[in-house]
Amino acid sequence: MRVLLLNQCFYPDVVSTAQHLTDLATELSRRGHAVTVLTSDRGYDDPSLRFKRRERWKGITVIRIPSLSGGKNSKWKRVANFSSFLLICAFRMLFLPRVDAVVALTSPPLISYLAALYARLARARLYCWIMDLNPDEAIAAGWLTENSKTARLLKRMMNYSLRLADQVVVLDRFVKDKVQAGGVESERISVVPPWSHSDVVQYSSSGRLQFRNAHGLDGKFVVMYSGNHSPCHPLDTLLDAALALRDCSDVTFCFVGGGSEQQKVQCFTESHQLRNIKCLPYQPLCDLSASLSAADLHVVVMGDPFVGIVHPCKVYNIMAVGVRLLYIGPDESHVTDLAGQLNGQLLTAKHGDHKTVVSHILKSSLSQPQRAKDQSSDKSPYSKTVLLPQLCGIVESGDSATRALTRPLPAESVLSVTNEPGT
User: For labelling alongside 11, which of 209, 283, 284, 285 has CA 20 to 30 A away?
Assistant: First the structure.
């Protein structure tokens, strides 16, 4: 089977969608399929990074295309970046050999619409892998007015691609509800969460010591936010807690990753002259065990309007290392769905309630460090060995030549991941 994968980021980029798409590409290639990836030649978070325009990597044909790189500090610059990528991508697709299946992610927004047009022209099957839902995300963030002409047009484009898709893969039950409300039949929606990288990410006591020593964290109680710094995950409450604890020399707040809101964290730190905040870039996958293990308390944030629009992908690798988790967000979300699997190690607070966040941090710093139930096992319902075969099975299911080769999905993981509302 010939498969085309479309997304703005891919290996060697280190952002989450790049890592998960790379896993899918390598597994499909390993199964004997001819895989082509059409992606950007720039780093997603750091556009100054440039990658090879074309290469053959692990049996995969990787085609990287140029685009504008105006930065993320303006929504108009972001629109220009995305638009330039989509235009060049559309032109490049005209010269691709025929494929049997197209898998489109959601970066840049509405690349699935481009995929739908191409799939219809090439008579290929279409699979939409929804990492975040747009234009809903832009509307919730205040970048678009819901009833504006632009928003209505973008929604029609998104709905077109979803209705044309053979299968729509979503990450949790909340996203499924929104997609289904948009007119997609339940039987064409599959819930497959983004797996933890439990094959390489697990608790590491030696890595913890090395990371803490390298970044001056020895003897500190480390509160860590690791991942994308996005308006979808507002950090104001956590920053207010850092400000309230500015004189508590034993507590350090470590922000690891990147995104449009990282500059906000840095400006907050500088304007208040805080010494208890440390900002670090995204860590490569090979160093992720060390960085995640270095935390004493991990923080996951979900903006109230973004439930069912974006997914807290970072939670799975945190579960893999088993470090205690503080969740800031609405009462009902995918994070609270996971409470039963966190062995009583989930602390919660609402946005704006920095006093509760401070209380959780201080109480946690005084108690004996505990690790939650270890989720790094291959038997975890969120491990790559369980979820990646499910996703491959969905892509392969429409191909009669490979149907017999598709490995059956483990009955327990299908039930626990797809049907239970508590996952």
Answer: 209
